[in-house]
Every structure is written in C-alpha cells, then in structure tokens.
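Go through this chain.

——
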Amino acid sequence: MTTNNYTPPASVMRVLQYIEYEQALPAGDPRYVPTQAARSSEMTFDRLARKFVWDPDENEFFPPTQKHVLFFGHIGSGKTTELRQYAERFNQSGHFLVVEVDVVEKLDRNNLQYADVLMAMAESLLQALPLVGADLGEAALTPLRQWFQTKLIESTKSQELAAEIKASAELGGGIPGLLKLVASVTNVFKTGSSHKTTWREEIRTHFTSLASTFNALIRDAEAELTQLQGRERRVLFVIDGTDKMRDEDTSRFFVQDSVLLLEVETLALYTAPLDLKYDGRLGGRLDDLILPMMKLYDRQGQRWTAGWEALRAMLLHRAARSLFEPDGEGDVQIERLIAHSGGHPRELLRLLKQCCEVAEKKIDGKKVLDAVAVSRAIELLAAEYRRFLKPEDYELLARIDTHAAHQGNNEQAQKLLHRLALMEYNDGSWRCSHPVIRTLEGYQLAKQAMAATAAAPTPDAAP
C-alpha cells in the first residue's frame, strides 16, 4: 500500500474487508496519522532515544553496554504503530540496527517464556545482518552452534528431531546454517512440541552460558556493523507482542525472569501492558516509558482539539467521508464515534466495524452509516463490557469519574485498566471510565447511589 495511490474504502463491504485493528501499521503506511499532539507526547521519542544515550537533536551518541526498556501503554492504543515510526528514525540515524522481534508471529503468545523470546531474538538478528551487508565468520558463529549441539540435542529424546537439528548445523558455514538451526529451535517453542518443556528447562539450567555466548555474538555483529559504516553502530532489539501475553506469563516474563533478561547485554525495548506499571513488583530493575493515550478532553474538561482532529483523520483514513450521511449530520455521527472511543484507536475501529455490520439505511442505493447504526454500534461495544463488569466495578468507575483527584491504585483498578474499562491519560495523573460504560444501567445506578449518599443529611453528633 503506497501513499500515492491510496484512497479510503467507500463502501461498507470494503471497510469490512480491510479493517484489521489487531494489526499495527508499518512505517510509511498512508493510513498513519501523527498523534504526538493528541497524546501530549511530543517528547516521547526524544526521551526514548536518550534512554539509549542518543540525543537526536545534537546527534550525540554514548550507548551503554546494555539497557532494557519497557514501553507501556494501553493494549491497542497504538504502541506498535508508534514503535515502527520510532524504529525507522533509529535506523536512519546510522547509530542503530533495529532488529524487530514479533513474538505473536514467531512464538506462542499464550504460552510464552523468556527462553522462547531469546531464541526469537537470535533468529531475528541472524535474519537482519545479511540485509545490511553484514557477514560473520565461523569464529563468531561456532560458539552458539556448539551450545545448541551440546545442550539441546543431547537432551532431545526424539532421534528424528535430533537428526533434523544436526542436519541444520551441518548445512554449511556462515549465517545461513546457523539461522536454520536457530529457526528449528524457535519453531519448537511456537508449535507446542513435546520437547518445549525439556528445552526450556535446559535453557534455564544453562542460561548463564547461553547468555554469554549470545552476548559474544551480538558484540561480533556490532563490530562488523561498525566496520562497515565507519562509526559505532549498535544492535537495538524491538520486541513486540509481549504486552499481549496471558497474565501469568506477563508476571513470569517481566518479574520472575527479569534476572535472566538482564543477563543479555544488549539494547532492547519491550512492549508491556499498562497495568504492569502499577503492579509494584518490578522494583525498578527495568527502565520504562509510557505512551500516553490520545485524549479528547483535558483534566479540567476542556475539549482537546488535537485529539479530536487526529482521531477524525484516523477514522476517515479507514472509511471515506461519503460513507456517512452528507452535510452536518454525518459530522455529528463521526463525533459520536470518536467520543465513545475515549481516544483509544482500537476502540474507534471496533465501533466503525460494528457500524458497518449493522448499517441499513441507503442513500442513492448505497448503505451509509447513520445515527441508528452508530447508536447500535455503541450498544454492541458497551455490551462487551457489561459481560464482565461487577457491581463493585461500576462503583469504582463512578467514584473515579466523580472525583478528579487520583486516589491510588489497587488490584481492582489494575484489572480495569488492563481490560480498558478504565482509561488513563497524560502521565497517569488522571483517569476516567470508558465512555461506552457510562451508557450502561449498572454504571448509572452506581452514579445515582453516589448522588443519593452525598445528598443524605448528616446525622447529628451523639451527645
């Protein structure tokens, strides 16, 4: 998809054909909309770059030996799309070779451990080096190949799989042979082979030696990159999809296994779910940065124009303006969709998709998205939240909406953040409920109960 020939879909069926809110936009995609002003995140990229000790403005570069950074944000808020824009800028600087690792594509995100991700990192690095003309000699590649042969093949009970791995190792010298070997191991972790548990145990038992071997490979790769370019160039792993793991896997990966993670001496950036930021168990072991949500209002309730404009542009990049009713009525319905998204990109696209699924009105023989379709889409999205919200959840959300001051976090609030029932803006200093939840009877009853309690007379003090 190129910028020059792109036009937004102009029919309901075309919108449904192309809309895919689980897939992030690649750098250069014509549907991308800059959101820095909408998020009040104009400094986010500069702050991220400085965590790796690069100043984009003055182009000073003094990289540390290692730095592991967590990139927090609501799930579906655009972290991966923004990261791909950032990755392009990191690559263009000449200071970094960005190695993207998509764990959703390469691994099983429903059963994920750090050992699996380390294999995917090795595979992605070996894939990336030839693309920039970098080659490594046998002296650099042999230690990792030998580690696999001595630690994993010997632990494999299946002679067939052992033969496959040995054949991969014997494919020949150079990166292709080692890449085939590492890819075979990574595939075991993705497909749920019976050897997954055994190999994970072997990797955990011998992790220090594996990390040391991988660290040496990274240093050799960076030396080759530096020699090719004539100035220092570092490998930067961007590991995406680690914000979509199961709760127990998230805890194991970022909390229990953080010691393992830090044994890998590299520059790495991981996507992470926002609720983990408030878990309290990270203990400052890992650096982090938050991508703020796009906001429609500021904390004082004033309309945030940049947010409305960005989300309108995002919507109309996915559905042509002609799909909505003409004149002012269509603009009213566009605003309703934006308002009920709460500034969340994926929620906006979910609403658009549901509109297209229920649209019935026709103008000149073509279905359009009218007030009835928009209302029905809002009801359908609200119903998704009604299915899991408890009475005490409505009470907490109503209380948060009533009192602007941030009164702290607990496990209940963290779960609501994770499931988008509660939305956070700016630096987390203020929050509010998802707008569609405010249309639900349970929420309205909670608000009425709060109002009744506040209006009740205070009993006289006892004598």
Remarks:
- The chain has a mean pLDDT of 89.
- The longest helix spans residues 207-229.
